[in-house]
Structures are given as structure tokens and as C-alpha cells.
Amino acid sequence: MKQFKNLVRPYLIWSFILIVVPLFLIVLYSVTTGGNSLVNIQFTGENFKKIFEPVYMNVFIRSFKLGAITTGVCLVVGYMLAYVISRYSEKVQNILILAVTIPTWINMLLRTYAWISLLSDNGIINSLLMLLGLDPVTMMYTDFSVIIGLVCDLLPFMVIPIHTSLAKMDHSLIEAAYDLGAKPLTAFWKVTFKLSIPGVVNGTIMVFLLSISSFVIPKLLGGGQYVLIGNLIEEQFISVGDWNFGSAISMLLAVAILIMISIMKKIDPDENGGA
Amino acid sequence: MKKKIAALILCVCIAALALSGCGSSSKKTLRVYNAGEYIDKTLLTKFEKEYNCKVVYETFDSNESLYTKVMSGSKYDILIPSDYMIERLIKENFLQPVDWSLITNKDNIISDLYGRSFDPENTYSVPYFWGSVGILYDKTVVSEEDAKEGWNLLLNEKYKGDLYMYDSERDSFMIALKALGYSMNTKNYSELDEAYQWLCNQRDTMDPVYVGDDVIDNMISGNKSIAVVYSGDAAYIMSENENLAYIEPEQGTNIWCDCMVITKDCTDTELAHQFMNFMLDEENALANTEEVGYSSPVKSAFETMQEEAYKGISAYVTRVGYDKDEVFAYQETELKSYCADLWTKVKAH
């Protein structure tokens, strides 16, 4: 056993350099001013104070709202999909799960561009509508286009954990529930759903995290005025060059996410030693 | 003991793996950093063949991101930034002077482009492309009379929800300041505040969409009828969609010039000069301007284009000598971060 411990050491050094050092730098940047070179820094709370200006608070609220909607849609659609998949024989299930992951093989940017040509004002959907004699609808650069892009991108992250939970469920439990006089809906709610909660929690956390920190999809499908936390951070680092403020936003986002994950984990019976 | 040796060997292996990416080949390399969609890429292959070298070509999406990238330690030999960014890089002592005796094609350059305010002696910069910023509009939707309003067209509520703005801090402030009749290089904070109000007002009443390079595809397929664009993009879009017209507003606009500069990191300056000279060659410049649609600094290429591919496309020919037009100047750090902050607020609302 001992030699394995030694083998782990290079990895520890590696992860220290790649994880701990950058994190430390973000913390350092967030509480200082004096430019990006870290030569003559001064400690300050200004960066955090700036976030609490109404404009930036709005960005936070908008991002969390959008994240919640995206997660909600993913949960409903993803749960139904996972449930249907889990009803098939194992062989078919494998194929169907593969089909769910196939879109992720295609580059995310490419899929987003496909949405642009579908949704734009003179795009494919609107051309079809006009052929049918209906009025065109503005879909690009709205909440709708951003949410649909996010849902399409993140759905597999919801389907797979839920499916894993559902697949390992023992079907005789449902039969037992029926035998004891439960109606289908009650049986689903009290047995199936309860047993799939670990998958639901994991899927929800994953989709929520990815959706509130995404910046490419909102930028392409929502336009430059659609600023979410991810865009705000990207802008501070890339074009504005204020790494101190950018780091402060990242810190606050990380703390907010940590709190949420710990709340979500409370719901998960596996983590609580069984419900 | 053996285990320690094993661990050591492992460490060496990992280090070797990590460093193997840095292995150098004997060929000379030139690292070029240019804006996206801003070159005829076949020219790069041609240059590699002619000078037996390798070109590492990377692109940026704005001058600001070029600055951040370069300042955070990325090394390039040749950069192609805009005027005000060149001024900043010169002031921050980041560039090497150009040896004009090595640029044998220098006589091809249009003489107007020499001696601009950001680099009066052209000590550091060799022109690459130039042009203006203007409004591209759909002639079938926007009446000529409305188009004459210039920048105020962008506040005309008849076209609410039907326009693209350019997602760039300096260009957006330029529009607002020019519309208000101020200089786009103002150092007066109350004028900037007024411009900020103008932009907020526009955002609230007009529902503009702030876009980057995706404006090109959007305007070609005619998704909206008005867009703020760079002249070269306008020329390209107009050659694909004939319903469009381009105006340089009479309130004045930004006449810009993007130039090739050599960084202090550049070691093979000979190759760098060869590259700049290569781009100014008449034939190469023609291929380049035809591909991207921006006005060439090479006289013969510029004139040929007006006769051929971009005949009758007004956006290709940039207005010269109009006294309300300006060239962007360098902003002090404090002023710059003030504007950046305002621009973030305009968008993040």
C-alpha cells in the first residue's frame, strides 16, 4: 500500500498547482486593487461593495432566475424522458441513452449557431410560419431563445443521473405498492419519485451550475445586452481588464453556489443516511 | 530507496510530458495576432512557402482583448491593432520601431495614411486596413429622409426593435458623443455622462441588440433593417445583399486605421519585416482586400477594387478630409475605466 501513497504525490503537487494556486489568486485579486500585475497591491473591500450596486445585483437576480427556469424545464422534460427510457429492456435503454448523449458529440457552438438560423427573424421557423400564412414571431435575442439554447445544451446532464437512479430501482416495490391499494399516481409519487431523488438532486445541481455560469449561449442567442453573471465576469477579464472586480464577482458566485449545493444535498436521502 | 527512485522517474516523466509541447522545430516561426475574419488565409500559406517559415496565426475579437492577452504574458511578433490601441502600446513601451528601409513596398501605400496622430512619424506602425464606422440600412424599409438623420436614426422610434448596435465600448460612446455634437475623444466627464444617458435612453426606447461579428450574417439574411457596422464589413455585406445602403453620418464618425506593429518580444525582426512587406505587395494586398472587404492601404489595390469587385459600393470608399471626422486617441487609465464602467452598466441594465 505504501508505495501507492508515494505514487500519489506528483498528482498532489499537480493538483495544488492547477487548483489551489489559481483559487488563491482569485481570492487575492478580489480583495485588492492596483492592477493585474500584482506588483503594488492594496487591500480593499471596494470590489465587493461595487457588486452590491443595483445594476450588478440585477444581473445576479436575472441569472439565478434564468438558471431556475432552465433547471425547471430540464427537470420536467428530462424526468419524463428518463422515465420513458427506463421502461424499455436493457438493450434498448443503452441505445436510447446513447441517443441522448449524441448531441454532445457535436460542438456546442455549432449547435448554438443552428439555433440562430432556426430562430432568427428571417430564419427557418419564421419562413415556415409565413408559408402557412401566419405572422412571423420574434424569437431571437429574447428569454425564449436563451432558455431553449440552454435547455438543449444541458438536457443530457439531467437525463443521465435520473435514468441511473430509475434503472437501478426494484420494480417489485411498485407492484407491492399496487398490491397495498395505491393508485398509479400515488405509487409513482411515493415510490418511484422518492427512489429517484438522488438522481434528481444531482441532475438539478449540475444543470443549475452550468446554466448560471454559462456565457457563450446567452451572448450568441441573447445578444450583447443579455448580460448574465458569466458574461459580466468574462467582460471584466477580457475586455475591461478589471481582474479585481471580475474575481470578486467570481468569489460571490462561488459562495452562492456552495450554499445552494449544501441546501440541495440536504434533500438527498443518500447523503442524510436514508430518509 | 527503490521507491524513491521510481517516484523520481515518474516525476521526470510527467515533467517531460508537460514540456514536450514546447519542443522547437528548426523552421523559423512568426506569431501573428490579428482580428477575426480579417485576412485572406491563403496569403499565410503563400508567405510560409515563400519564406520557408511557419506562421502561428491567432485572432482576437476586440482591441481590448488584445491588450489583456498581451499584458497577461502571451508572446507575439506581429500585432494588428487599431489606432488608439497602438498609441497605448507605444506609450507603454511595448513596441519596436519599424525599419522602413526593409519595407520595399512602402511606396505602394496611400500617402494620406501616413503621419496620423497616433503615430505621427510612423515610427512603429505600418498600415494594414482603414475605413470608417457608419450605418448600414435596408433601402426598402428605411426612407432616405430618415437615413439623413445620421446617428439620430438610431433613436427614431419608427425602427424600434429593428436595429443592431456594435458591441464595443469605444464605438458606442463615439456614436453617442457624435450625436450630441461632442468630440469622441472628450475628456470631459459631464459630456461622457450625457453620452451615457443617450445610450441608456436608446436602450430603453429602441430595444437594440448589441452584436459582434454575427452582424454580418444577420444583415446578409436581412433579419433587421439597421446596423452600426465598420465600413469593410458593410462593403462585404452589401456585395451579398443589394437592398442595403451605407452612410457615414454627417455628425462625423470614427475614421480608423489598423496597422501592423512589431512587439518587443519579437526576436526574428527580419521575418517580421518580410511579413509586413509581403502584405503590402500589390498582388497580395488585392487578394486580401477582395476577401475581407476593407479598404486597402495599397493604392493600386484600392483603386482596382473600386473598379471591380466593390464597384458602386459606397462603403468601400472611406470619406477623407471631412472636418467632423476624428481618429480615436488614447484614453488615460482613469478615463478608460470610467467609460468601461458606464458601458457595462448600459448593457447590464
Chain oligomer state: heterodimer
Please give the number of β-strands of chain A.
Answer: 2
Strand portion of chain A:
under 5%
Q: What does the main sheet of chain A amount to?
A: 2 strands, antiparallel
Might you state the CATH topology name of chain A?
Answer: MetI-like fold
* Computed CA radius of gyration of chain A, to the nearest angstrom: 23 Å
What's the architecture of chain A in CATH terms? Orthogonal Bundle
**N→C terminal distance of chain A:** 36 Å
CATH class of chain A: Mainly Alpha
Low-confidence stretches of chain A: none
Name given to the CATH homologous superfamily of chain A: MetI-like
Amino-to-carboxy terminus distance of chain B:
64 Å
Structural class of chain A: mainly alpha
- Gyration radius of chain B, in Å: 23 Å
Strand content range of chain B:
15-25%
Topology:
The complex is a heterodimer of chains A (275) and B (349).
Chain A (H helix, E strand, L loop, with lengths): L1 H29 L1 E2 L8 E2 L2 H6 L2 H33 L3 H12 L6 H12 L4 H8 L11 H25 L4 H8 L4 H30 L2 H7 L6 H12 L2 H25 L8
Antiparallel strand pairs in A: 1-2
Helix pairs in contact in A: 1-12, 3-7, 3-9, 5-10, 7-9, 7-10, 8-9, 9-12, 11-12
Chain B lengths: L1 H18 L8 E8 L5 H11 L1 E8 L2 H9 L6 E2 L3 H9 L3 E2 L28 E14 L5 H4 L15 E4 L2 H11 L9 H18 L2 E3 L3 H6 L5 E5 H10 L3 E4 L7 E9 L5 H11 L2 H11 L6 H9 L25 H16 L1
Parallel strand pairs in B: 1-2, 1-3, 6-7, 6-8
Antiparallel strand pairs in B: 3-10, 4-10, 5-8, 5-9, 5-10
Task: Compose a concise summary of this entry.
The complex is a heterodimer of chains A (275) and B (349). With 275 residues, chain A is mainly α.
